[in-house]
Amino acid sequence: RSFVKLAGVGHRYDPNPAIPPAVTGIDLDIHRHEFVAVVGPSGCGKSTLLRMIAGLLKPSEGRVTVFGRAVDGPRDDVGIVFQKPTLLPWLNVRKNVLFPLRHKYGRYNREDEARADALLAMAGLEAFARKMPDELSGGMQQRVGIVRALLLNPDILLMDEPFSALDAMTREQIGFDLLSLWQEQPKTVLFITHSIAEAVLLADRVLVMSRRPGTVLDLIDVDLPRP
Ligand code: ADP
Ligand code: ADP
Questions:
Q1: Ligand of minimum distance to the alpha carbon of 103
Q2: CA-only gyration radius of the chain, Å
Q3: What is the mean pLDDT of the chain?
């Protein structure tokens, strides 16, 4: 059963038919606990694709379904991590990751706090739970953003170049951390990246998009054994 299904999906920002759509004719099936990476040059439509799955943007052609239902807006069971984590500067790390729960339910309980601590530990942030965001490196802040998204326990996690602002070493470190998080708590993931290495390291399948606006070049199965 597909978790996410795209059939002939496209989007054009400009109604002028002389201007090609940002994305067109995308067919994609993402299964439960599958990790799909999307690679391609800047401007090829990766973010547009992600925003349509996230329900932040309406497709102008084709159909996006999540859990068998047409997407008609953002949903709680679909988490999103953007390039910059936008942590709240006046809350410490722990309160930041708990914030969406408070925002959503008005409160959180002991169990939520325990889960937050466990996820922070898994992300190597145990010692930083009481620190303020500006006391953390960019890489750590990005990990906090990922923990925050995971804490809501989304069934699907969409990540738009979450590591692109980081240097190569930090990136590699986070990649491995993410991989271990993934193994502890399997998630269905769509992950946008510039880095083929990152894609191959993390993904089960890699969707390659072409520089020609909005077209899919290839869908590659990465058959790497998971450690
Ligand atoms: P990528 O994520 O691969 O860099 P995007 O999905 O951001 O690509 O952009 C795809 C194309 O759509 C680009 O040509 C970009 O300029 C255009 N585009 C993106 N967002 C908008 C927007 N809000 N309004 C108009 N054009 C946009
Ligand atoms: P704001 O309303 O200030 O834009 P939110 O509280 O909606 O911010 O979201 C803050 C962060 O929490 C997001 O960047 C995202 O990482 C995470 N988040 C929000 N909604 C969800 C959700 N439904 N599932 C997973 N993570 C989410």
A1: 2
A2: 18
A3: 86
The pair of structure tokens assigned to 166 is 């980081």
Interval 58-117: pLDDT, tens = 999 999 999 999 999 988 889 999 888 889 999 999 999 999 888 888 888 999 999 999
* This prediction's pTM: 0.80
**Tokens found for residue 212:** 């020609």
Where does 90-167 have alpha helices with state H? Answer: 93-105, 110-122, 138-151
Mutate to test the pocket of ligand 1, among 44, 57, 160, 192 (most ligand atoms within 8 A of CB): 44
In the numeric block, the tokens 């925002």 are attached to: 103
Cβ(190) – ligand 2 distance below 6 Å:
no
C-alpha to C-alpha distance for 45 and 102, rounded to whole angstroms: 34
